[in-house]
């Protein structure tokens, strides 16, 4: 334990948000993620904090998430859970395959925890050939896996895990447990907020990007090169309404007004700050990238990050807190592959170091802010060992004081004035994730036309509230997040349909004719090979770490990194693309690096899942020298790989004998590449999935390889 008074303050903000998955017509949820995160993340995150009396944490909850949690508690059905409650024999055809597919969507920690589950997943690969007994078992495992391990001592789970053959009573008991736990979420946070140990903050009601609601051309302030719609969306009154309604909904749920707000995706601008101040909010939070672009170049010193700032608006001052991007991303993307206690100790040590480096008249304030739900799926036991070790370590550390934003503002006699406020978000301090791509721009054009139709027809919020409610839903950020090529989801078509349903409801509720364009999908088909390109044929590149000539890798397959991410957004990383190909004797891999980032890489590791688990360590990455490749066996002993070659220069080129991988004609290869720096694994490639390659019957069938 540390001795002496606190030397640094640590502000944690966990952001809880899911898109509004409810259909415009009947309110039924198309996707189950609110219900599943309620039992796997929201409830246990609150209960875990409640165990530590000295810990202070901020939870940010989006109002439209609260609405959906209320629906779950009230028994409003959703598509998947309706099907799970039915006899498995009644599920047939595409409906049955859909349930099998959904129930195979399991957190990685759960798959690693139970060998019986892994065996079942192997036996249900063919979605159309799963018998009743296996389907029922898959449903039960799905329900268990989407419960945090904190709840595995519940009698329903113990009873299910103790059986060798699931029956409908096990599934029904697990369904009832899910409903009971999800119904506790809002009240648990309310009690925590009332205790004074946790600050509860909000986001705009339907999670819109506020600066773009004020004026979509605001995106050009950070990115003048961005191509935005010619007809801009301009509705500052909608931005103000999303904020005022959020405050009202939060107050109704938790019995007190929020004092601050994480504006959707940390998106701020001078206009948004004024709206927030006018609504009586005391603080906003965003990313350090916004701070650096708000300060004169000579004042962009790290010490500026570790303090709150004050921005003066026409409606009065408002405080701004800026997140430490690296520390937040270490929790989001790095620590999941570490030993949990080592990861917790590393974070605490880094906070201590920042306190020592930036000591002054007032304690340095380190702000860690991130998604409180999606990041845990890659951690052992859903992040429980890491969070327990972290919270225990922080409670024992007398030199680190955890605080909330309102505590900081109440205790500091003065807060420095920010000379300017940049218009940007937490991602690259701009808005390219939500506007600028052809799909995103088309979505904005449809929203603009729908709003104009209401205004031109004299359909006001007072006379046609349902139409305006649908418009506010369509203004949410999540539709624009999934349009374009920045992020991948197999449900892209579902998001597309939901978005256009909300816009159709605008016209229908207002009694106005619907544009025919709302019947046309906005998004490209999910199978469109934008981020995963198939090989054209065999190749035999020169393994020298250089792009020897254009056609050397021309026939290779390619996975572009950073364009296929999921719901957690990863900033631009070290790797930009993974190429793959083969000839009759070798598998070839090529890893491309972002400009100026190659020096950060000290090793690579290949993780092969199929046809058999293998780990290959690649070290000593000196330019123009063959790297050392070793196969790490199950006994952790390293073995040389005969015939394997790797050379790293401007790119990394690797050749592996096919025989060493256990590949036979017709088999499938599943792999990922881990990029390792001085602090451990920096990133995995391609990201949140594996590269899947079917090895052809003969080299001339190269075009049959697929990802």
TrEMBL record:
> Gene3D superfamilies under this entry?
Glycoside hydrolase 38, N terminal domain
The record's GO molecular-function terms, alphabetically, read: hydrolase activity
Q: Give the similarity note.
A: Belongs to the glycosyl hydrolase 57 family.
* InterPro entries assigned: GH57_Enzymes (IPR052046), Glyco_hydro/deAcase_b/a-brl (IPR011330), Glyco_hydro_38_N_sf (IPR027291), Glyco_hydro_57_N (IPR004300)
Q: Which Pfam families does this one have?
A: Glyco_hydro_57 (PF03065)
Report the superkingdom from the record. Answer: Bacteria
Q: Which UniProt keywords apply?
A: Carbohydrate metabolism, Hydrolase
Presence of the UniProt keyword Hydrolase in the record: yes
Q: Which organism is it from?
A: Eiseniibacteriota bacterium
Q: What is this protein called?
A: Glycoside hydrolase
Which regions form coiled coils? none
Kindly give the CDD domains that the UniProt entry links to this protein.
GH57N_APU (cd10796)
GO terms in the biological process aspect are: carbohydrate metabolic process
Residue span(s) of domain Glycoside hydrolase family 57 N-terminal: 12-410
């Amino acid at each position: 334990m540390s001795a002496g008074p606190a030397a640094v303050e640590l502000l944690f903000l966990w952001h809880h948000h899911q898109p509004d998955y409810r259909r415009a017509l009947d309110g039924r949820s198309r996707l189950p993620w609110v219900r599943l995160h309620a039992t796997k993340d929201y409830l246990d995150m609150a209960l875990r904090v409640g165990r530590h009396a000295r810990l202070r944490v901020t939870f940010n909850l989006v109002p439209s998430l609260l609405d959906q949690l209320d629906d779950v508690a009230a028994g409003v059905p959703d598509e998947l859970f309706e099907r799970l409650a039915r006899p498995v024999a009644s599920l047939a055809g595409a409906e049955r395959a859909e349930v099998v597919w959904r129930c195979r969507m399991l957190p990685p920690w759960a798959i690693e925890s139970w060998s019986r589950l892994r065996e079942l997943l192997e036996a249900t690969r063919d979605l159309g050939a799963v018998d009743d007994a296996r389907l029922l078992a898959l449903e039960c495992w799905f329900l268990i896996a989407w419960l945090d391990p904190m709840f595995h001592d519940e009698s329903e789970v113990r009873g299910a895990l103790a059986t060798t053959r699931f029956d409908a009573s096990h599934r029904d008991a697990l369904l009832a447990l899910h409903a009971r736990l999800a119904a506790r979420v809002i009240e648990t946070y309310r009690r925590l907020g009332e205790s004074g140990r946790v600050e509860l903050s909000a986001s705009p009601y339907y999670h819109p990007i506020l600066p773009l609601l004020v004026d979509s051309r605001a995106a050009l302030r950070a990115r003048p090169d961005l191509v935005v719609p010619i007809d801009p969306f301009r509705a500052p009154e909608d931005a103000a309404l999303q904020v005022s309604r959020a405050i009202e909904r939060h107050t109704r749920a938790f019995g007190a007004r929020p004092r601050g707000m994480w504006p959707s995706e940390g998106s701020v601008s001078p206009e948004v700050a004024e709206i927030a101040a006018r609504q009586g909010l005391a603080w906003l939070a965003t990313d350090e990238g916004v701070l650096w672009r708000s300060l004169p170049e000579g004042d962009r010193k790290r010490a500026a990050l570790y303090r709150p700032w004050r921005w003066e608006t026409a409606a009065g001052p408002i405080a701004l807190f800026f997140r430490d991007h690296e520390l937040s991303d270490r929790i989001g993307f790095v620590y999941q592959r570490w030993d949990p206690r080592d990861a917790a100790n590393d974070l605490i040590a880094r906070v201590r170091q920042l306190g020592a480096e930036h000591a002054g008249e007032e304690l340095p304030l380190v702000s860690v802010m991130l998604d409180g739900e999606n990041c845990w799926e890659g951690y052992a036991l859903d992040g429980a060992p890491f969070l327990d070790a972290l919270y225990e370590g922080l409670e024992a550390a007398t030199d680190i004081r955890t605080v909330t934003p309102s505590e900081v503002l109440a205790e500091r006699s003065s807060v420095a004035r920010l000379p300017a406020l940049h218009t940007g978000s937490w991602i690259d301090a701009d808005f390219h994730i939500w506007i600028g791509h052809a799909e995103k721009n088309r979505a904005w054009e449809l929203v603009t036309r729908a709003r104009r139709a209401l205004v031109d027809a004299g359909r006001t919020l007072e006379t046609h509230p349902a139409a305006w409610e649908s418009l506010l839903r369509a203004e949410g950020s999540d539709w624009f997040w999934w349009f374009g090529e920045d992020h991948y989801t197999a449900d892209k078509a579902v998001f597309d349909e939901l978005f256009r349903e909300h816009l159709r409801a605008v016209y229908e509720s207002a009694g106005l004719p619907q544009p025919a364009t709302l019947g046309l999908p906005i998004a490209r088909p999910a199978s469109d090979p934008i981020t995963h390109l198939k090989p054209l044929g065999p190749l035999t590149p020169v393994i020298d770490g250089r792009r020897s000539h254009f056609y050397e890798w021309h026939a290779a397959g390619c996975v572009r990194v950073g364009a296929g991410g999921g719901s957690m957004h990863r900033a631009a990383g070290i790797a930009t693309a993974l190429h793959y190909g083969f000839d009759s004797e070798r598998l070839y891999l090529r890893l491309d690096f972002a400009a100026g980032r190659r020096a950060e890489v000290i090793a690579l590791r290949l993780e092969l899942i199929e046809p058999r688990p293998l780990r290959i360590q690649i070290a000593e990455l000196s330019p123009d020298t063959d790297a050392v490749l070793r196969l790490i066996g199950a006994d952790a002993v390293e073995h040389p790989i005969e015939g394997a070659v790797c050379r790293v220069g401007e790119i990394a080129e690797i050749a592996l004998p096919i025989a060493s991988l256990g590949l036979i004609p017709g088999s499938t290869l599943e792999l990922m590449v881990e990029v390792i720096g001085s602090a451990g694994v920096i990133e995995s490639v391609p990201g949140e999935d594996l590269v899947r390659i079917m090895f052809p019957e003969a080299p001339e069938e190269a075009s049959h390889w697929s990802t």
